[in-house]
Structure formats: structure tokens, C-alpha cells
Amino acid sequence: MFIAGATGYTGREVVRECVARGLETVAHVRPDSSRLDHWRKHFGAVGARVDTTAWRLDEIGATLARLQPSQVHALLGTTRKRGSGSGSGSAVVDTYEAVDYGLSIMLLEAALACGSNPRFVYLSALGADGRAVNAYMGVRKRVEAAIRGSGLPYLVARPGFITGDDRDETRAAERIASVVGDGLLGLLGALGAKRTQARYSSLTGAQLGAAIVELACEAREHAVLAETEQLRACVS
């Protein structure tokens, strides 16, 4: 298993779940990460290997060709603040176009060429199949289209809000929206709208990570698309 985006909120849980299943797991960390030593220790303690291949197609391609993974996870994304172009000190410019689209497509191309025909696992978002209302949704819609056309087996996960008290990033607006939204959805559920509640209520990183690994490992279909309701069913 090759996990790109391993240091993210969901990525950490995916790594942990893969290792718990006894799967050989490689957690990718940017070589210029200011917390590289921290992540080496963190993933080492979990039982995963750390890879620091630079984000260049030839190098990522060579790494996947050497590892021959059965799954390649693209759990890449930047925050709204960084997505607007604010720098993080990384050699990769933190914009939605560069990270959420550019690196995901680079990883897809490397997976296609590596020779092991891995299942490509992509963390998208609920609503990515509709009209692109902003840059965040727009890049996910484009990445999904590229995955469908790649010929690789795939899993596309489309959760709604991903939240939890253990999240490192400060996303106050998202946290508030998820709390308020879950409250309203709970009321709707009590009034009988169970399907609406299941479709739109939030997931924690642990729930989402467990669901992604479950679906990616157990799927027999070539193409798997899972939205919040299907993801939650895996961990209920």
C-alpha cells in the first residue's frame, strides 16, 4: 500500500488501518516537510515504512515501479487558506490546482505506469459529481474524470464533512458547520428522514479511514464509488 497524503487527518488513519490488517504500508511524506523527523517517528511507531520521494513524475514513478503496490492512495489536499495561494514553505506551491489536482494526477500517471495495476484510491468530496461551484470541487471533479478514464481499478470516496476533536488543523468554520449540520440532520432523522441524515452527516477521520481501507481491500468490482452513507455502513 502506498499512501500519499499520509500526514493528513484521514491519511494517518488509513495508514493505521492498513498496518492493523497486516498489510505492508508505505507512508509518503514530503522530503521538505518541516516535521519530517516527527513523521518518521510517528509512522515508525505505528509500523509503517516512510518514503520521502520528491514530487516529480520520474521519481514517483520509479518508486511505485520498485514497490509494486496493490493499492495507491491519493489522500492529498490543502486547506482553504493554503488553497488560495498562501505559502507553507514547501517546494510544492499549496494551491488546489497544484496539490489537489496536480499531485493527484501525477500519482495517477505513476500508478498507471508502475506495472502492478494497483487499485487507485481517491479521497474526493460529496457533490464532486455536480456543478463545480468552487475551485475545491472543480479539481475533484476533474480528478475523478481522469481516474475513470485511466483503466485502473479504483475507489472514489466522497464524504461530506470530515471532522473530529483530534484534528490538527484549525478549521473553525468547518467544525461549526458540521456540529450545526449534524444537529439539524439528527432532527430530520428523528422526523423520519433517515436517508438524508445518513447521506449528509459528518464522519471522523477514524471512521473515514476505516471505511476507505475496508472498501479498498474487500472490493471485487473494478469501479467503486462510495458516498457518506456507504462509507458509514462499513464502520457501523
Automatic annotation (TrEMBL):
Pfam families xref list: NAD_binding_10
Signal peptide: none
All copies of domain NAD(P)-binding, residue ranges: 5-174
SUPFAM superfamilies documented for this protein: NAD(P)-binding Rossmann-fold domains (SSF51735)
Gene3D superfamilies: NAD(P)-binding Rossmann-like Domain
PANTHER family in alphabetical order: OXIDOREDUCTASE HTATIP2
Protein name per UniProt: NAD(P)-binding domain-containing protein
